[in-house]
Design a protein that fits this description.
0% strand
C-alpha cells in the first residue's frame, strides 16, 4: 500500500539543495527513459519511424521544442519528483 508523499516538500528540497549522488543517478535514469518515450510519442504522433524522428531532432527546432516540453511536463509530475527524491517507484 502506498503512503502519501509530500510532493511539494520533496520538490522544494530538490530545488533548494540540489541532488545527492543517488538522486542524480535516478534523475539521469529517468531523463534517459523520458528521451526514449519522447521519441516514441513523436513517432506515433507523426507516423514516422524512429530513424526519421531522430534525424529530424538533429535538424529541427520544432521537434526539439516538443521533446523539451514533454520532458518538462514529466519533470513536474509528482511521480517523477518522488522517484528522484526518495526512490519511490512510478
Amino acid at each position: 500500500m502506498r503512503t502519501n508523499y509530500d510532493i511539494k516538500a520533496m520538490a522544494r528540497d530538490l530545488a533548494e539543495n540540489g541532488f545527492d549522488a543517488e538522486q542524480a543517478a535516478r534523475y539521469d535514469l529517468a531523463l534517459e527513459a523520458a528521451k526514449i518515450a519522447a521519441v516514441a510519442v513523436l513517432c506515433a504522433r507523426y507516423g514516422a519511424v524512429e530513424g526519421e524522428v531522430l534525424e529530424a531532432l538533429t535538424d529541427s527546432r520544432g521537434f526539439n521544442c516538443e521533446v523539451y516540453l514533454f520532458v518538462a511536463c514529466m519533470e513536474a509530475s509528482p511521480a517523477f519528483v518522488a522517484f528522484v527524491h526518495s526512490g519511490h517507484p512510478f
